[in-house]
Hints:
The protein is an alpha+beta fold. It has helices at 3-22, 30-46, 51-54, 62-75, 86-110, 117-128, 131-140, 144-159, 163-176, 184-214, 216-220, 224-234, 248-252, 272-296, 304-321, 334-341, 346-370, 376-381, 386-410, 416-435; strands at residues 242-243, 265-266, 270-271, 326-327, 442-443, 451-453, 460-461, 470-472, 475-477, 480-484, 487-492, 499-506, 515-522, 525-529, 533-534, 540-545, 551-558, 567-576.
Amino acid sequence: MDRKQILIFVTVLLAAFLLRLYFIPSPGYERDVQLFKIWGQTAAQNGIHNIYDKTWCDYPPAYIYVLKSISSFYSLFHPDFKEHTYLYDLLIKLPAILSDLLISCLIFFILRKDLSFRSRMIFMSAFAFNPVIIFDSVYWGQIDSVTTLVALLSILALTKKRYYLSWALIALAILIKSQMVILLPITILLTWKRCGFKTLMGGFAAFWASFLFILSPFFYFHKVDQVVNVFVSSVGRYPNVSMNAFNFWWLISKGNGANFWDGQRLLNLFSLKTIGSVFLLAFMVLLLKYLFDKEKDKKAVPTGRQAVFFSCALALFSFFMLPTEMHERYILPVFAFLLLAAADDLPMQISYGVLSATGFFNLAIVLSWAYPNNVPLVGKISQGHFIDISASIVNLAVLAFFIFLISKEAFRKIKIKYLISTFLAIALMLLAFYFFKPARAVYLSDMETKENSQGWGSLQIDKSVDKNRLSVGGFLYSKGIGTHANSTIKYILDGNYGFLEGSCGLDDEQNRGNKIECLIYADEKMIYDSGIFQGYLNPHYFKVPVKGVKEIKLVVEDGGDGINCDHADWLEVKAIP
């Protein structure tokens, strides 16, 4: 680059950085930001190995190292970890901001042999100024860009024949966010196809060496089982068809994915969760065949790198679209890979723009549901389900287009009658879904109580006992029951449900460190006891079986210090069929 080009390059990056600094004070998804602060403080004060003992944490440990460093640095200026400062918010969001900029730079340099300087600047800007990327990293306050950066470096190393480095980096990506495991089949295929079995075994060794190094404190203190539990419990932690991802299942549930249990069976044969997993498996087999054929075709070698990036984008997009229990932010890693695959492909460039729009609406609408005051404009235009259902349809259309592209390549030699049979089978499956009526999970706050009593005030639905918004540990909730110790609330289930899931805690409105205890009884038999706990803690999560139960009873008792200020909340408690 000449001096003028360097100036343009730096100016664009600086503008992207300053734009993100402007949004640093935005409250965003307050729960996520506060959890990052809590995890960092806990790790800084008690050590990485104690993170799962001292607080609730559902993230693998790799990013906890970053949060620990941030909190340790911040404590030099605020030993009491004062929460609401620009510096603290900046430090918490800085890793994602820097990752955004580094990915933008990588896109610019990776495409240096394919595009002119002007075109590369356009592509770099398309990522650096993408509204959904900015919204996730700075406004929402999440770290998907960090995971994407590590995964992108891993795949880039793979294309550069740095196989052991690639395997070590993909291990790191998985230990930041476990959904990056979807890229492992591509890494396995390319390593084996290009360098053989011996290099593949070396890659496995590098993968586990990276794992062992990152987890060494947990091995030393005999707590690696806690890390294993994070991965194991991530499957089924949210047993709903969609955790606000505008995907296939959001469309099937008609915009109520978070209230539809994925354990229900279609035609009394297979659970929705199993069907989603089969969809993903079938797509990955198709994708791997496409990539295998691209690797085998010598004429495709000049565009082999583009096929790799495209395959990664599709693997990540299918992971967002097809399985159940997906979150809205799982679409974020798609964008960097798709943009790299779209260097000289107009349909892919259009797909990038379309998915950027649907992804932005997905994040903005979900944030408005959780914190209406943080995105008031979006809340006003997202009434009803028109936008989210439309976004789901558009996303599904883009997925169908991608399936068409790779099917055309993967099945060039397969007779047309087999393709027609396959698409007819898919059509019949979709028809069955059209007539499928999933049983909804029901919030207890939407059910009539059989009877209730409490030591002060009156029972409140979807509000605290003082008629404020439900808030525990700084986290806001739209659904729940506000009560006061000592309290008893009874509901009739009539044996129609399989599980009761939710959380309980002391509301922040009168939280003075007082103590309560939450208990649940099923037909007068205790099935859950939170134990005595104080305020200023995260909500206590529970999921208990209630199959065949006629009546449940929610009980809040004072923790031995009297009932004064015992404002208790039952949060998002729902009966799941």
